[in-house]
Amino acid sequence: MSHLHAHSDQLLARVRRIAGQVAAIERSIGAGAPCARTLHLAAAVRGAIGGLMDELVEEHLREHVAAPGLSDAARAEGAAELAIVLKRHFR
């Protein structure tokens, strides 16, 4: 997805925040924090990953399925790629 390059700084910042959230879960478990605290941290990570996934799916749709000028074959390929990812995501 070379088109992501235009937003790479924002995406990388988002991924780094998620990595920080995952590290907080690790610290929480290691410190024996109350389970409710750790659950909240895990829920936050899940939400952050979901938001990242939403952004990536939207970008893929715009660039590889709905962009003007794409051939029918390119649209079909973009849709097939997305279908594979979504099947894995929703397992």
Q: CATH superfamily, please?
A: Metal-sensitive repressor, helix protomer
Helix-strand sequence: HHH
Distance between the termini: 23 Å
Poorly predicted runs: none
Mean pLDDT: 94
- Sketch the major β-sheet: none
Could you say what the CATH architecture is? Answer: Up-down Bundle
| Percent of residues in β-strands | under 5%
Q: What is Rg?
A: 17 Å
Question: What is the CATH C level class, in words?
Answer: Mainly Alpha
Structural class: mainly alpha
Fraction of residues in helices? Answer: over 70%
Please explain how this structure is put together.
The chain is mostly helical and 91 residues long. It has one domain: Methane Monooxygenase Hydroxylase, Chain G, domain 1 (Up-down Bundle). The chain is 78% helix and 0% strand. The chain is built from 3 helices and no strands. It has helices at 8-30, 35-64, 72-89. α1 packs antiparallel against α2 and α2 (35-64) packs antiparallel against α3 (72-89). It is elongated. It starts with 7 loop residues before the first helix and ends with a helix.
